[in-house]
Structure formats: C-alpha cells, structure tokens
Amino acid sequence: MTIAFCEHGLNRDDHARANPARLAELRLSPLARLLAMEGLNPVLGSDNALTWGDASGLTEVSEVVFLGLDGEAPLFAPIPAAGDTRPAYEQRPAWDALSLLPPRDLAIYGGARSLVDWHARHRFCANCGGPTQIAKGGWQRNCDACGAQHFPRTDPVAIMLVEHEGDLLLGRGTRFPERRYSALAGFIEPGESVEQGVAREVLEEVGVVVSDVGYIASQPWPFPSQLMLGCHGTAQGRELTIDETEIADARWFTRAEVATAMDAQVPGEDKSFLPPPPTAIAWHLLNWWLERG
C-alpha cells in the first residue's frame, strides 16, 4: 500500500550531513533550492505543488536544514521563529494543504515540517538550559555549555484495528467531527513493546482485552512528529467500557458497513459512519482490512 508522507524519494546523504565543508558547498550550489514556507505551512503554487526558491534565497535566512538531494539538487527548508504542537485538526491551513499536495510533495513537506518544527521548539538544552546550536545539517543540535547532543524526536503511536467475529471496533475521539470514526490509537510508553502498547490502549480506552496483535504498516505523521504503527488485533469479547475522557463513542461495525463507508460513490448520509481521510494511515488500514477479506 502507498501511504501518505512516505514516498519522498530523496537521498538524505548522511555523509554530507556530517561534513560541514560539503554542506557549505551544497548550500552555495546553483542547483540548491529552498522550500517556501509561511511558518510551518507550505506555500503552494498554481498546480498545488510545493514552491521552491533558488539558491539566492539561502543567503536571506539564518538557519536552514538540509533535507537531502533531489537528483543533484540540494533541498533545504527554513527554521521558523516558533513551532506548533497543536493537533492537525486545529491547524487548518496545513490540514487543507494535505489534501492538495501531490504524494511526493506531501512526503517532502511532512519530513521538512517535522524537522523544522523540532528545531523551533528545541533552541535550549533540556539538560542545562543553555542555548543549542544547529549541527549535522539540521539533524542534530548541540549544547556548547554542557556538551549534550540532541536529536530530532519521533514518538511511536500504535493505531489498531480490533476485530471480533468479522466485525470491526472503531472509535470517535472527543474532538472528531460528527459521525467520523477511526481506528483506536495511543502512544507507546517507555518499557513496553508495540504489542503491549496496543493491548493496554484498547483496554484503557474501551475495556476490551486484545490478543494476537500483528503489525500491518507504518506512517510518519508530522503533527508534530509521530510514527504511526498500524496493527491488527483480535478482541476476546464485545462488551465496551468507554473512557469518555478520550473517546466520545465506540462501536462495532460490520464488514458491509465499513465497505459502504469507504465507498467514495456512496453519499455521506447513506453511510453508517464517515471514515478517516485518505492522508491518514487509518484509511489505509480500513482498506487493507476490506481487501484481506
């Protein structure tokens, strides 16, 4: 399956990242391009693709990150003045762009956004509080005061399809749009495996015991920087005890109901629920489940 944010196709060139002289050459290259952004939002062209400035734009920004090589062209992105940890649905301009960008541009933007957002929010050392400096082309920050090295973080999140006798358990978050249901999800905690995280989250959110957890696929999610780990598990029962602090509702859906919801030709009012958007891995997990039969 082809999942959004995954197909950037860039050569991230770790050897260049670690070589300040090589990075300086790439930044001065006439082929260099700078991603046009307004804060953390992409600037789209008339074709709804990303907009790139030429090498001259690199002299006008103080901090940039090296995204990688697109063929021979070095790609860079500017670090904004401030980051943004709000969930995607609260960031309307960025969310609107997700549905317009071509798949490859979407993947490039997702990686760039996660990286520059991290820099904007980590200008000071978590160890001693001293200012940090960009290093390794933007894939590291160093503290001159205590010598600590800091690296862009990625937070693992389990997102899971829970099945029982051919039906699928889906939930609606407290801030979801009306009738929108999706796979349950939650952060993997320190000291637990993905399988343990899936079982714990499902038990906490809906009171269902899950076994036989298996991995399906993953997706980087740049709001601000998660790695979504798509899984499937088997429920040991159907009775639900919903944690209303996180879940507005949870229901079992038949295969026919899921198929109708995922059918783009069926009007929304004729569906039992509205599925997640195709940019989310949850949409791909539902499609995988239907195709698996």
| Principal-axes shape call | globular
* Domains (count): 3
Distance between the terminal alpha carbons, to the nearest Å? 16 Å
* Count of extended strands: 15
Tell me about the largest β-sheet.
Answer: 6 strands, mixed
CATH class descriptor name of the largest domain: Alpha Beta
Query: Structural class of the helices, strands and pairings?
Result: alpha+beta
Architecture of the largest domain, CATH level 2?
A: Alpha-Beta Complex
- Order of SSEs, N→C? HHEEEEEEHHEEEEEEHEEEHH
The portion of residues assigned to helices is 10-25%
Mean pLDDT: 94
Please report the number of helical segments: 7
| Residues in β-strands, percent | 25-35%
In angstroms, what is the radius of gyration?
21 Å
Parts with pLDDT < 50 across at least 5 consecutive residues:
none
CATH fold assignment of the largest domain = Nucleoside Triphosphate Pyrophosphohydrolase
Under CATH, the homologous superfamily of the largest domain reads Nucleoside Triphosphate Pyrophosphohydrolase
Please render the helix and strand layout as text.
Layout: H1 14-17, H2 20-28, E1 33-35, E2 37-38, E3 41-42, E4 52-53, E5 64-70, E6 73-78, H3 92-98, H4 103-121, E7 132-135, E8 140-143, E9 149-150, E10 155-164, E11 167-173, E12 184-187, H5 194-206, E13 210-221, E14 226-235, E15 247-253, H6 255-262, H7 281-292
Parallel strand pairs: 1-6, 10-14
Antiparallel strand pairs: 1-4, 2-3, 5-6, 7-8, 8-9, 10-11, 10-12, 11-15, 13-14
